[in-house]
From TrEMBL:
GO biological process entries: amino acid transmembrane transport
Higher taxonomy: Bacteria, Bacillati, Bacillota, Bacilli, Bacillales
Localization per record: Cell inner membrane
GO cellular component terms, A-Z: plasma membrane
Main location: membrane
Record protein name field: Tyrosine transporter TyrP
Length: 433
């Protein structure tokens, strides 16, 4: 009888220990995450990769060759590698911060948790301003592309673009991940076909790809770093991965940014190598159409539309949940509040794009610079604070990537890009192209 009693006591101790242990094993790793106004949803690894790619590959990649023409292709490659590395590390800081937090927050919610209300509002303004500027660009750009293809007024083209753009965002993170995966795969295939046709057909000239002028390299640095900014997508991935192997989170960030870096190198390489710095067009698709024929015109413009669409989905979804998080809506799936949040995402870009509010659009470039400073500094502060007062044990950490020297370099990189953009806007420094 005494032996039985001891056995029961031992079993109860084991059960209590298993229940109190932090989240370490695969079978119990979801414990410690609590539902908030943002629902935990399931996405797979390639959904996550596609969301990262979609958030970065948009209007910027189409003008990168033109922005590079004075500095040269080797300068572009250097900045893509350097800024891609630092941006990826910054995104990994956000990833670890989310894993140290029980509730699934967006960036503004994480900032409020670890920095305070001022930090939360700074982060929300950065995300909102950067997102709004991008969504305006996709609205006007899609209208022009569809106007060329379908011979309709640009506003009709934008409306046609908005239908699939807004509908997918309405259905949430899982729908965005699935749609991003399909369209991103199509984008990669199309751009590889265009590059291969360029190499086999007209060909690339080595002298166009080897010249460089380091004295005008800073503008490329700022252009690339603002193309790479995607920290706002990381909390979305976290709440999509917590029901499985959480190590998919850092892997998806690294894989996604690697694909982004490859595309940011290959597309300008094709345009510059084909036409040279003197003849490179501001929009890379025009050069392909002129060199390869009508099929390239349609292929390149469909690629452009897909780039706009995937970016709209990733940015729109993140902005919607940031609005839900910052404005303390009871649930992202409450019909009334979801309609309000989606209206804030969809209506302002369309109105600004087609009411001639040019002055306001100009202000968005400064907002983008402000966003760069915030995205460079606050993730560092949030990570350091989360390591002191975080509410759960993370399954993965940044390790040596969070060394103070690395953090200092990341802050310096983002702040330098923003300072240059502000000085260029006020004509204190030349634009460089």
């Amino acid at each position: 009888m005494g032996i039985k009693g001891e056995k029961l006591n031992i079993e109860s101790i084991v059960i209590e220990k298993e229940q109190s242990d932090p989240i370490i094993t695969q079978s119990t790793q979801n414990e410690g995450f609590k539902e908030s106004s943002l629902r935990i949803e399931n996405i797979n690894f390639w959904d996550g990769v596609a969301i990262i790619v979609g958030s970065s590959i948009g209007a910027g990649i189409l003008s990168l060759a033109y922005g590079t023409k004075n500095a040269g292709f080797p300068v572009l490659v250097f900045w893509v590698i350097l800024t891609g590395l630092f941006t990826t590390i910054s995104m990994l800081y956000v990833a670890e911060t989310t894993l140290r937090t029980k509730k699934p927050f967006q960036l503004s919610g994480l900032a409020e948790t670890y920095i305070g209300k001022v930090g939360a509002w700074l982060m929300f303004i950065a995300v909102f301003g950067n997102s709004l500027g991008a969504l305006i660009a996709y609205t006007t750009g899609s209208g022009r592309v569809l106007s060329e293809i379908l011979n309709v007024p640009p506003i009709i083209g934008s409306i046609l673009f908005f239908i699939p753009a807004v509908v997918v965002v309405w259905f949430g993170l899982k729908a965005v991940g699935a749609a991003e995966k399909v369209i991103t795969a199509c984008m990669v295939i199309m751009v590889l076909i265009l590059i291969l046709a360029t190499v086999i057909g007209p060909g690339l000239k080595g002298e166009y790809l080897t010249y460089m002028n380091v004295s005008v390299s800073i503008p490329i640095f700022t252009l690339v770093i603002f193309t790479f900014i995607g920290q706002y997508a990381v909390p979305e991935l976290t709440r999509g991965f917590v029901n499985g192997d959480i190590k998919r989170l850092p892997r998806s960030i690294i894989t996604g940014n690697t694909i982004v870096a490859i595309l940011l190198i290959l597309v300008p390489m094709s345009a510059l190598g084909l036409n040279g710095p003197e003849k490179v067009t501001e929009i890379v698709t025009i050069a392909w159409a002129e060199a390869l024929g009508q099929w390239a015109f349609f292929t390149a413009n469909i690629f452009t539309l897909f780039a706009f669409l995937t970016s709209f989905w990733a940015i729109g979804q993140s902005l919607l949940t940031n609005i839900v998080d910052k404005l303390k809506f009871p649930s992202e799936w409450d019909l009334k509040f979801r309609l309000i949040a989606l209206s804030i995402v969809a209506i302002p870009p369309f109105v600004i794009a087609y009411t001639g509010l040019i002055g306001f659009v100009d202000v968005l470039s400064l907002t983008g610079s402000f966003s760069g400073v915030i995205m460079g500094i606050l993730p560092v502060l949030m990570l350091n604070r989360a390591r002191k007062i975080g509410t759960r044990e993370p399954e993965w950490t940044c390790g040596r990537l969070a060394h103070p020297a690395v953090q200092a370099l990341i802050v310096l990189t983002f702040v330098s890009a923003s300072v240059y953009t502000i000085m260029k806007t006020f004509n204190i420094l030349p634009s460089g192209w």
